[in-house]
Design brief:
Blueprint (H helix, E strand, L loop, with lengths): L3 H17 L33 E2 L1 H11 L1 H21 L5 E15 L2 E3 L5 E3 L4 E19 L1 H69 L4 H36 L8 E2 L14 H11 L1 H21 L5 E12 L6 E11 L7 H67 L5 H36 L4
Parallel strand pairs: 1-6
Antiparallel strand pairs: 2-5, 3-4, 5-7, 7-8
Length: about 475
């Protein structure tokens, strides 16, 4: 029999480990089995009651696509940019204006003669007169040559393309967020199962210890430790259930919905990515050709190039056609026809350095846009390499975690057998239970890591499946 002080020290150490063990999510308190400890179920085994609504991953993604406010905002910005493209094109198309006017005028009939210089000479004997003046007509213009307007229109087209690509980027990020939070909710649900199994085993161990203590084959301290383990297991289960509820609330936020959490997440997983084991150069090519962030920045760079063209064309003349037709007169029933047409050449050849300043500004903005594209290309390469490395490492860790869990289960089985025959101690049994609980939680974490790493790789490659 171990010294009492050593037993108390190990008891305190086990209590600290159990208190620090992170075990999130949902379940009901199990009924203690008066016999031997119940065999723990594999992590991830379904704990969903019959009739409970299951939320699948595809459904969560579809809900987010329909409701996520950040996606609605990005799509609205892209649609507004398309409308602005129409506005930018309008100066290049025919313009027409209808005119209707009425004037009540007063002048001195025969009282003046034009001098050609804008002055008026008064003629003796003139008489004042008041009369009406009516005018009804249309005027129209058409730009024949204005490279500034053409470049501005093309720049706006590229800007609209950039915002559409930005909306695609937002969609990719929304899908990644939903997948990540979905897998987090599934992991916390699985940790509830781990906590349930741990509590079931601890209750069974307590029942065994009580029997041994009654017949005097185990000391009272063994019963105290068994009760402590049960209490800690109950705390862990409550924490796990609360974490699962919070995880579903976070999933609702990612989906953009304000409903309750009266559902359970299903066991959905992402299938292996067909290219996840390929060499990096091939993955870089896929990502550089598919990532919407790169497309957005490339369109923005092209738009800035057209802004530079527009600034340079400020030194070019513009040519336009204008014409008009009107019915004018002093009475509505006595109007006569007037018309005109002509060409207008406009050339702003001297603007005090205004155009020069615009050109220099546009040149530097183009340099900045080109640099931003280069920065994002480097980021894409890093994202791909990081995602693949993380996925491959997590796949290996999952295999190792499953091996550790199998060994922990066997260790617990042997410890239970030794304790039942009176060979083992409560400390040995508690240690084995703790190891099995930690190994089960580690498997859940490894499964979560693999799922989220696979989702991150799909996002890094710019693939939406």
């Amino acid at each position: 029999m171990e010294h009492e002080g050593a037993v108390l020290l190990r008891t305190a150490f086990l209590t600290l480990l159990l208190a620090l063990l992170p075990l999130p999510a949902r379940a009901q308190s199990p009924t203690p089995d008066a016999g031997t400890a119940a065999p723990p179920a594999a992590p991830g085994a379904s704990t969903t009651p019959a009739g409970t609504r299951l939320l699948h991953l595809d459904e969560a993604i579809q809900t987010a696509v329909a409701n996520a406010p950040q996606l609605v905002q990005a799509q609205a910005n892209a649609a507004a940019a398309d409308a602005q493209t129409i506005t930018a094109r309008s100066p290049l198309l025919p313009q027409g204006t209808g005119i209707a006017s009425f004037l009540r005028q007063h002048s001195t009939v025969g009282a003046s003669t034009g001098t050609g210089s804008g002055t008026v000479a008064i003629v003796p004997g003139a008489r004042p007169s008041t009369y009406n003046s009516f005018r009804i007509g249309v005027v129209g213009t058409q730009t024949l040559w204005d490279p500034v307007d053409f470049a501005t229109w093309e720049s706006q087209q590229h800007t609209a393309d950039a915002l559409r690509a930005t909306a695609a980027t937002t969609l990719k990020n929304v899908v990644l967020s939903v997948r990540t939070t979905y897998f987090a909710a599934r992991a916390t649900r699985d940790l509830v199962k781990v906590a349930q199994d741990t509590l079931t085993n601890q209750l069974a161990h307590l029942s065994q210890v009580e029997g041994f203590v009654r017949v005097g084959t185990q000391p009272e301290i063994a019963l105290a430790l068994a009760r402590l383990n049960v209490a800690n297991a109950r705390v862990a289960l409550i924490t796990a259930q609360n974490n699962y509820r919070i995880a579903r609330a976070q999933l609702n936020q990612a989906m953009g919905v304000a409903t309750g959490t009266d559902y359970q997440v299903a066991d959905d997983e992402l299938p292996p990515v067909d290219v996840e084991d390929r060499p990096l150069p091939g993955l870089f090519d896929i990502a550089l050709g598919s990532r919407p962030e790169l497309a957005s920045l490339e369109y923005a760079r092209q738009a800035q190039g057209k802004v530079l063209d527009s600034a340079r064309w400020q030194w070019s003349p513009s040519l336009g056609f204008s014409g008009g037709y009107s019915k004018v007169g002093t009475s509505v029933d006595a109007l006569y026809d007037t018309w005109n047409f002509g060409l207008t050449l406009t050339w702003n050849f001297l603007q005090g350095g205004f155009t020069t300043g615009q050109i220099k500004t546009a040149e530097q903005n183009l340099r900045s846009a080109t640099a931003a594209l280069g920065i994002e290309q480097l980021q894409v390469r890093f994202d791909v390499e990081q995602a693949q490395a993380t996925l491959l490492a997590n796949k290996e860790a999952l295999v190792a975690s499953n091996d550790a869990l199998e060994n922990a289960k066997e260790q617990l089985r042997l410890a239970e057998g030794r304790y039942q025959t009176g060979v083992g101690t409560i400390i040995e049994l508690s240690d084995a239970q703790l190891q099995q609980t930690q190994a089960a939680a580690q498997v859940v974490q490894a499964q979560y890591n693999v799922s989220t790493a696979r989702a991150a790789l799909l996002a890094a490659l710019g693939r939406g499946e």
